């Protein structure tokens, strides 16, 4: 019989090399508590991989904040342990080296913040930032891609997916940097297809945009294992922050907003905490409070879909930074009212940028003339859209009913419109005769949806748009 000591010696020499091989293959050395954390915050959570899709839906330096938001989100996920192969980034990538950027090749998401641009994958940039490519990425359909890195969410049944979007929006629609806008019904159809394919366990979606609640309200079922959080409800604006002339102030050489209030709220919360100890619900509560505190005119962060998922730790979707493992949550953090500061309506942020450019430019300079022209163009477009939409509504419904059509809001249990094809066709009919709608103009998407719900046909919209825009064109 082999002595007990000999048996243990044999086990030692057999098992330890095996463990060394297994552990070494994962590049993990178990040596103290910090290395155990390294294991815990790795790419998976013990139950599938983490995937992320990050989308900045705008272009142009006046929209700096959207790409800065997305780059910041990437840095959080990267520190949380996600691999680049599991993070898909959509951004036009025209900001970092824009001539207006005072720090070429660097993007910041808060005053005196660190560079968030460095290392961000350039998966889908420029004209490859399209709705079709976004849908193909979510569905894992490589054959449907046009350009880009070819990276898709090639997820499996036990995987977890995080989607974050930052841009302008209006009722039932958000933007993309190139090509068609992203309509709510099309997004929901894609999410249903993804669920039907049984290629994820759960999904979390964060959306920063005006009226972003309308992307899910009355549309997102609770049985898809998808939990969505939006910067505003279905009728409110969302807000830019860290804007020039608004506290907290960006560095003086920046004439554009550095971030969006909802976005920097969830990201600065994630930067700070051990996300294994914070649930999605806790983060939602913190962000909702920070976004609306002391100002009833601000937006109300909303949640949709499978709210049971809000009990999951944020870690399940974003991983966690091991440097935050000793952070302790306090009750004061969740009840503090110290978050109040000034913000700028998303739809006014571009106007602020060009006004500052005009104000700062030397008298008589080309720069001042160009900024002045841009300002006049924005103001002229605003007046044109206001007048033409009001006139179209009066032509279609008469003076008495027109104001009701312009302001009607459906109950929260109902989607924006019954016939989404009608909405898209009426918008195109208007744009063909009256000019493309800016994101200011798209605030009238709800009014156009109301026209569809009232039975207006495309032919009627064409005739009314032609009359109105001959008058105000």
Automatic annotation (TrEMBL):
Active site: 168, 210
The Legumain prodomain domain, residue ranges: 373-469
A single GO cellular-component term on record: vacuole
Superkingdom of this protein's organism: Eukaryota
GO molecular function, one term: cysteine-type endopeptidase activity
Signal peptide (from-to): 1-25
Keyword Lipid biosynthesis attached: no
Protein family per UniProt: Belongs to the peptidase C13 family.
PANTHER family xrefs: HEMOGLOBINASE FAMILY MEMBER (PTHR12000), VACUOLAR-PROCESSING ENZYME GAMMA-ISOZYME (PTHR12000:SF50)
Name the UniProt record assigns to this protein: Legumain prodomain domain-containing protein
